[in-house]
Design a protein that fits this description.
This is G-protein coupled receptors family 3 profile domain-containing protein. By secondary structure, this protein is an alpha/beta fold. It is 42% helix and 18% strand. The protein folds into four domains: 16-176 and 384-474, 3-Layer(aba) Sandwich (Rossmann fold), CATH 3.40.50; 180-320 and 348-378 and 483-526, 3-Layer(aba) Sandwich (Rossmann fold), CATH 3.40.50.2300; 537-792, Rhodopsin 7-helix transmembrane proteins (Rhopdopsin 7-helix transmembrane proteins); 882-973, Roll (PH-domain like).
Length: 1035
């Protein structure tokens, strides 16, 4: 079957029907010739609906072999696609019929040829086609596309590349599978990105091709983060000859123009390259990239030879007599006359006659030794699955049924694009039909062209991969990605160095640059690094403060270690001070390297030293504030509030989390230095961390630091009300000031570092905030310590709480220095008092010494426990109640560490198993009903009772001695095995009332009361003998 030798005259020849069998696809089809059209459809379509697709190609055009080959191979590819669509029933309930129509039935020219092309397109529309594939040339495609778009019929072309066909106002239903010239910009930009060039410059011809492609290149470069630092038009049709050289020089004289995109064709492209070579811009600093096919190297070399011949004539003293006249002649007319008569002057010849660099002819092998790149359509798609399948099927087809088929080597990219035209159109129809709930109705609407408004180009984006790549179309109907060969002129010869498939570049060879160099040019002018290093005055000031801070930290560590026995604080130990100072040194180390010229070593040291130092410092300060917050109201505390074990546990925990994150983060990421341009002539170097876990681990490290800081700030706020007259907690105020300072410094530094756009602002403020925060905190924490140790020379204090110092005891007992008399029996009472220095006096010693005399101002008597006469109902009964001033901690059972000790006034009613407590500071309290009391600590320093409540809270009460611990535990539990009698109203003798829910009475036996009094007196005697020995007893 040959469709190329049909009678081209339109006449009726009904009945010429032939049947054929495609053995490869097991497909029988019929071919009918009528009215100048060839209709190809399945022999037995069954009950399926017919969908007519028109093929509009110049079947009888013989003057151009390229056009003929495109027509023959393209039609065979479309027929093959139709066979596969019908055999696979790609469109549910429908089959495809091809109607082939000749757009060039007779060898006519001019208006007559245009007329018969339009008639052919209208003929297809009249035969009921719902889609059209064609034409070959862009000009004739524009004619048919205008008709089909008006009638809302989709049309696809696999050869038309004119940019005007992207005009949606005229060709809204047209799309194409061939990459357009615009994709040359995508190819060039992908190559630029692969080489890491941040800037480009554009030299474009002042015509439709240059203007449109340059505008598209600027837009795409911006979207990809590539900056355009200059652009210049040249070689406009109306430009005078003398302006061509000036325009080229205007762009290239800019020192920032290093990566030059040349957007021009043919003569304009050659002129730009030769003029650049003459001016010396073909060098190691410049790279030339052609956005479009580059003239072959023979043409370029021939132009250079002619250029050099003119230079040689000038060297011999020859001149051109009509240069002034030609100078103002426009480019278009001179080029046209030169091509027709050879007597006119081309722009490149004018440049040769007028250039100042005529003493040095262009050496073609040197000037074009490398650094010139271009891109060409059509790549070898072998290895790509869909193309390999197409090639395999193509090689098995019968050439009688499919002309140009039967040979795998002839399955070119043109075949693939023609095949994709019909396949993508059928997939678009399939998507519409399959998505309908009534496919029969949808098919009828499709056949009658009632769905035209739904077949704009994006409707054919079905996500399938065609044999020439992904079939993705933009809203203009153009392919979104294309396939190109990457070409590089090396030593005067054009060489393929890679491919671009579906927008992804793959370089198979190393690009060669000017002089045969393999080193990638920077693409930047000579730039200055603006990293301050240790050279600027501000950097020197920051480094000076850093050195001062390190010196002070080392000095403080040395002095405190030497005079460690003179530490008067009950908060800080030698270990805590050394850990804090070590944290300061790490922070200063990070600032020192942060201020340096950035190297790869800095990129490792900065995060490691900063995060370790920050964790150590805030860990120590947070723990100190927490312990102060928890126990500062506890008068029985005898040991330092922060033990070394607690300190090491907290610091080690924070360091472990930070260390694990750093150990995973740094090896798992690609750490490198990155040059970031600031202006066209300046840049700065920063550390760049690339890796899948980078963001997650940085967030973890930042979260740990933020939690430490937030905890420290909260505790600083909670401990702000600690009295100033407690010397052992004097350091608390210094710690709080340091925490506030670190918080505000971190807040400002973090905000500036992540939001400031100016490099110097970000760099200097970040470093300054770190130095300020560290230095102020260091001084506020350790100057008072050193002042106390070395200036005041205060003697070491007896910091054991709950006892009066020997010196002050002697001042109180100034009657001869002997031991005080033992306590006399009587109702047990206890008192708390403080001296002017703030030491807390033992209750039993005050009782034993009779310290509360009228001549001892400043000491006040307080009840610890007392028997009360209570009134209940109509009867006055002898009940049991105890009151005391003791440290109390209300503990929420699920979060016990969030509570703090507070001195409270307690009134216990053991018979009804509840007690009340009122804070001495806030004068607020509550009534607590309990189950029982247990001893949870009876060590030498801590005597604590836990009173278990009925709800979610428990109460901890601390006493001074073991005997008192057992006594109070017995009091709480004295009635726990009995059901408490209900009470209605209980009042103390002083008028204070307590209310419950009943009207029963409280009864207590005298024997129990007397036993309690005896017990109280017994442990007071034991305490006396234990403290003053047997000699005192005998005295």
């Amino acid at each position: 079957m040959s469709f190329l030798h049909d009678d081209p005259v339109n006449h009726t020849n009904v009945g010429r029907i032939a049947y054929y069998t495609d053995q490869v696809h097991d497909y029988e089809f019929r071919v009918e010739h009528k009215n100048g059209s060839t209709v190809i459809s399945p022999r037995d379509p069954g009950q399926r609906t017919e969908l007519k697709i028109g093929i509009l190609l110049p079947f009888h055009q013989t003057s151009d072999n390229v056009t003929r080959e495109l027509t023959i191979s393209g039609t065979s590819a479309i027929r093959m696609a139709a066979a596969e669509i019908n055999t696979q029933q790609r469109i549910p309930g429908a089959y495809v019929t091809l109607i082939e129509k000749d757009s060039f039935p007779q060898a006519l020219e001019g208006q007559e040829a245009i007329t018969q092309a339009v008639v052919s397109a209208i003929s297809l529309v009249q035969q009921g086609v719902i889609g059209v594939i064609g034409d070959i040339s862009s000009s004739w495609t524009a004619l048919s596309a205008l008709i089909t778009s008006t009638l809302e019929i989709p049309q696809c072309s696999f050869t038309a590349i004119a940019s005007s066909l992207a005009d949606r106002s005229q060709y809204s239903y047209f799309y194409r599978t061939i990459p357009t010239d615009l994709l040359y910009a995508d190819a060039a930009l992908s190559f630029v990105a692969s080489q890491g060039w941040p800037y480009i410059s554009l030299l474009y011809s002042n015509d439709d091709y240059g203007n449109q492609l340059s505008q598209y290149a600027v837009m795409k470069a911006k979207s990809q983060g590539i900056l355009v630092n200059g652009y210049q038009s040249f070689y406009g049709e109306s430009d005078p000859l003398h302006q061509v050289s000036d325009d080229i020089e205007e762009l290239l004289s800019n020192p920032n123009s290093r990566i030059v995109f040349v957007v021009a064709q043919d003569e304009a492209m050659t002129t730009a390259l030769v003029a650049a070579a003459n001016k010396g811009y073909m060098n190691s600093d410049h790279v030339w990239i052609s956005l479009g096919p580059l003239p072959d190297t023979t043409t370029i070399q021939s132009s250079i030879d002619g250029f050099n011949a003119i230079l040689q004539s000038r060297q011999q003293g020859q001149t051109h007599q009509q240069l002034d006249w030609y100078a103002n002649s426009d480019v278009a007319s001179e080029s046209l006359q030169s091509n027709q008569t050879g007597n006119s002057m081309r722009a490149i010849d004018y440049i040769a006659w007028t250039t100042q660099e005529y003493q040095h002819p262009i050496d073609y092998p040197t000037a074009f030794s490398g650094g010139v790149f271009s891109f060409a359509l059509g790549i070898n798609l072998t290895g790509y699955g869909p193309f390999d399948q197409l090639q395999h099927t193509w090689s098995q087809l019968d050439p009688q049924l499919y002309p140009s088929a039967g040979n795998a080597s002839r399955a070119s990219s043109n075949v693939a694009m023609a095949y994709s035209c019909l396949w993508s159109m059928a997939d678009g129809f399939r998507k519409i039909v399959s998505g309908s709930s009534n496919m029969t109705q949808m098919l009828n609407q499709l056949v009658t062209r009632q769905l035209g408004d739904g077949f704009t180009p994006t409707a054919f984006n079905t996500g399938d991969n065609g044999p020439d790549g992904p079939m993705i179309f933009n809203e203009n109907g153009d392919r979104a990605v294309g396939n190109f060969r990457v070409l590089n002129i090396q030593h005067g010869q054009e060489t393929q160095i890679g491919t671009i498939f579906a927008g992804k570049i793959n370089l198979t060879e190393t690009p060669v640059y000017y002089g045969g160099s393999l080193m990638v040019p920077t693409g930047l002018p000579a730039k200055t690094c603006i990293n301050p290093g240790y050279h600027t005055p501000i950097s020197l000031v920051i480094v000076a403060f850093t050195a001062f801070g390190v010196f002070m930290a080392l000095l403080a560590a040395l002095l405190i270690t030497i005079r460690r026995r003179h530490l008067v604080s009950n908060i800080s130990s030698l270990l805590s001070c050394l850990l804090e100072l070590l944290g300061f040194i790490f922070i200063y180390t990070s600032v020192f390297f942060f201020s340096a010229d950035r190297t790869l070593m800095d990129c490792f040291i900065i995060p490691i030293s900063f995060h370790i130092g920050y964790t150590l410092l805030l860990g120590c300060l947070s723990l100190k504030l927490y312990r102060i917050y928890a126990v500062h109201n506890n008068i029985y505390l005898k040991k330092p509030i922060v033990t070394d074990r607690q300190l090491l546990r907290v610091c080690f925990g924070g360091l472990m989390i930070t260390g694990i994150a750093l150990v995973i983060w740094l090896p798992a990421t690609e750490v490198q230095t990155l040059s970031v341009p600031v202006t066209l002539t300046t840049y700065f170097v920063r550390c760049d961390y690339e890796g899948g876990v980078h963001s997650m681990l940085v967030a973890l490290i930042t979260l740990v630091a933020a939690l430490f800081l937030a905890t420290a700030v909260m505790l600083a706020i909670r401990t702000r009300a600690i009295p100033k007259n407690k010397p052992k907690y004097a350091e608390c105020r210094h710690i709080s000031l340091a925490i506030y300072n670190i918080f505000f410094s971190s807040l400002i530094g973090f905000t500036v570092f992540h939001s400031a756009t100016d490099y110097f602002t970000r760099h200097y403020l970040s470093a300054s905030m770190i130095v300020w925060g560290a230095t102020f905190s260091l001084l506020i924490l350790y100057l008072p310590k050193l002042h106390t140790i070395y200036i005041k020379e205060r003697a070491r204090k007896n910091v054991t709480t709950g006892r009066m110092s020997n010196t002050r005891w002697n001042n109180i007992n100034n009657h001869g220095g002997g031991p005080p008399p033992p306590p006399s029996p009587g109702p047990p009472r206890a008192f708390t008092s403080t001296t002017g220095g703030g030491d807390i006096i033992s209750i039993n010693r005050m009782l034993a010494s009779g310290a509360f005399s009228s001549n001892m101002p400043g000491l006040t008597e307080q009840k610890v426990h007392q028997h009360h006469r209570l009134a209940a109902g109509e009867y006055g009964v002898d009940s049991e109640a105890y009151e005391a001033h003791m440290p109390v901690q209300v503990v929420y059972r699920y979060f016990p560490h969030l509570s703090a000790w507070d001195m409270k006034h307690i009134v216990l009613f053991p018979r009804v198993r509840y007690f009340s407590f009122v804070s001495e500071k806030s004068h607020k309290g509550c009534v607590f009903h309990y189950k029982e009391a247990v001893i949870i600590s009876s060590s030498g320093d801590e005597h604590i009772i836990k009173v278990r409540g009925n709800g979610r809270s428990d109460v901890l009460i601390q006493v001074a001695r073991q005997q008192e611990l057992e006594l109070w535990c017995a009091r709480f539990n004295s009635y726990c095995r009995q059901d408490p009698p209900p009470m209605q109203s209980v009042a103390t003798t002083t008028g204070t009332s307590l209310t419950t829910t009943s009207a029963s009475q409280l009864i207590i036996s005298d024997s129990i009361e007397q036993q309690h009094k005896k017990d109280d007196y017994s442990w007071m005697l034991e305490s006396y003998h234990e403290e003053y020995g047997s000699a005192s007893s005998s005295g």
